[in-house]
Amino acid sequence: MRTLTYYVATTLDGFIADPSGGFDFFPVPDELISTIVEEFPETIPTQARAHLGIDPPNKNFDAVVMGRRTWEPSLDAGVTSSYQHLKQYVFSTTMSEAPDDTVTLVASDPLAYVRELKQQDGGGIWLCGGGSLAGALLPEIDELVLKVSPIVAGNGIPLFRADFEPHLFDPIESRVVAGVTITRLAARR
């Protein structure tokens, strides 16, 4: 069975973006970029892969799921398919058509859809964001990889937006890279 990994940057107070969805306040030092390229190369957008010397195959994931608001910054920049090296699924109830045929637009229940997707053949599935989609998919998340920056934002888009229902995760590893704590946790089933 495929696994769903929520791999995301977050602040100390649990925000993945500012209130309008921007994330350019996160520091991304060269050492952190090198670590990401080495360990999670498929999370680098297709347009930047050649510049960073990333050549397929993918290491962890062959698919990415994200909410519409996570996808919109790319669309606003004129990039309709940020992860052409992955199967892309964008969850939206407001869009009727994807502007790129490499992106599958999904209007159905995210939890049921991802449960079915995990049963199909393939590699890992990366949950790219956002907080509402992560909240909806929380019962299916197998692993968290959190890049915790030493920032307190005070407000923004939370790591998870969901009703109160505690889910336990077991720490696997934690280390600091260029001031960012990378923590890996497995869902306790």
From TrEMBL:
It comes from the Bacteria. GO terms for molecular function: 5-amino-6-(5-phosphoribosylamino)uracil reductase activity. SUPFAM superfamilies: Dihydrofolate reductase-like. This is Dihydrofolate reductase. PANTHER family: 2,5-DIAMINO-6-RIBOSYLAMINO-4(3H)-PYRIMIDINONE 5'-PHOSPHATE REDUCTASE, DIHYDROFOLATE REDUCTASE FAMILY PROTEIN (AFU_ORTHOLOGUE AFUA_8G06820). GO terms for biological process: riboflavin biosynthetic process. Residues 3-160 form the Bacterial bifunctional deaminase-reductase C-terminal domain. InterPro entries: DHFR-like_dom_sf, RibDG_C, Riboflavin_Biosynth_HTPR.
